[in-house]
Amino acid sequence: MKRAILILLPLLLASACQPEAEVKNSEAKVNCGLPVAQQGGWVKIPAGSVLLGQDPSFPEEGPSMRVQVNGFEMQTHEVTNREFAAFVAAKSYVTDAEKSLTRQDGGAGSAVFEIGKGGQPGQWKLVPGATWKSPRGPGSTIEGQDDKPVIHVSRQDAKAYAAWAGGRLPSEIEWEYAAQSGLPDQANTRSGAYDPQKKPIANTWQGLFPFLDEGGDGFQSTAPVGCFSPSKLGLYDMIGNVWEWTETPFQDGVSGTVKGGSWLCSDNFCGRYRPQARQPQDIDFSSNHIGFRLVRDER
Question: How far is the C-alpha of 189 from the C-alpha of 244, rounded, in Å?
Answer without folding.
Answer: 18
